[in-house]
UniProtKB/TrEMBL annotation:
SUPFAM superfamilies: NAD(P)-binding Rossmann-fold domains. The keyword Lipid metabolism applies. Belongs to the short-chain dehydrogenases/reductases (SDR) family. GO terms for molecular function: oxidoreductase activity. It comes from Secundilactobacillus mixtipabuli. The lineage of its organism: Bacteria, Bacillati, Bacillota, Bacilli, Lactobacillales. This is Short chain dehydrogenase.
Length: 244
């Protein structure tokens, strides 16, 4: 399939989990992909597996200097930028009483500040071509409450998406948010969580958690011209969880 032929995409947090799945699907659809992550070993390995149409650039998404480097490397290697998937993120489940200010600022920087920086620097490049698509990965916790810190940042991503979509529509740059439910990635398999995940799955109308590829198909739709009239909108992939 060639839904992304001729397009160049940056995917943050692309070394594993959903980001890696998006990178694989994008390359199979004809895109050239810049995979970024703090996990250099896994990212370099994945880029090598994907061949000439993928490169890995080490990036901490919370670093403004790293964003400038990633954009520069993208243009130097592939000559243009059409798509940004702001996917990198972290989570923790701590109570309001236990979370420290340092922990709070860390999740803010990685989940929220990163999306602002990514949109700012990517849109500056996309503006030159008068087109582009930015896909911000939020969560169902950008729609309904969950853990403190994580929920805050994911609601912010949803709001930032709408603000940027309004401003960037003038340049034909579309900006949308994706709200995954429970997806089988290393993020949800941290520690001894298998039984908890199994129990949780029973509460999901479709009675199961999802595979990363099921979210990738939504991200592909938003990245491609198939979604040409969608901007500033929320796209939920949650098996019906938030419909209850
Ligand atoms: N898995 C789920 O159930 C779920 C549900 C809703 C939303 N999400 C969101 O989807 C996105 C991807 O999640 P996932 O489940 O694939 O997670 P994951 O933990 O499997 O992968 C996240 C990737 O981000 C990278 N990363 C972490 N901090 C970084 C930083 N500072 N700079 C650059 N890269 C960094 C990690 O190295 C890792 O490769 C996240 O934004 C997450 O919040 C996940």
């Amino acid at each position: 399939m060639n839904k992304l032929t001729g397009k160049v995409a940056i995917i943050t947090g692309g070394s594993q989990g959903m980001g890696a799945s998006h990178a694989k699907l994008f390359v199979s659809e004809g895109a050239k992909v810049v995979i970024t992550d703090i996990n250099e070993a896994a990212g370099t390995k994945l880029a090598a597996e994907l061949g000439d149409n993928a490169i890995f650039v080490k990036q901490d998404v919370a670093s403004e200097a790293d964003w400038q480097t990633v954009i520069k490397e993208t243009i130097a290697h592939f000559g243009q930028l059409d798509i940004l998937v702001n996917n990198a993120g972290i989570t923790y489940a701590k109570s309001l009483f236990d979370v420290t200010t340092d922990e709070y600022l860390k999740i803010f920087n990685i989940n929220q500040l990163s999306v602002f920086l990514g949109m700012k620097y990517a849109a500056a490049e996309m503006k030159k071509a008068d087109s582009g698509s930015i896909v911000n990965i939020s969560s169902i916790n950008g729609l309904v409450g969950g853990a403190i810190g994580y929920t805050d940042t994911k609601f912010a991503v949803r709001g930032m998406t709408k603000a940027a979509a309004l401003e960037l529509a003038h340049y034909h740059i579309r900006v949308n948010s994706v709200h995954p439910g429970v997806i089988s990635t290393p993020m949800i398999h941290q520690g001894d969580t298998d039984e908890a995940v199994k129990q949780f799955a029973k509460m999901i109308p479709l009675q199961r958690i999802a595979e990363p590829e099921e979210v990738s198909k939504m991200v592909l739709f938003l990245a491609s011209d198939d979604s040409s009239y969608s901007t500033g909108a929320e796209f939920t992939v949650d098996g019906g969880l938030t419909a209850q």
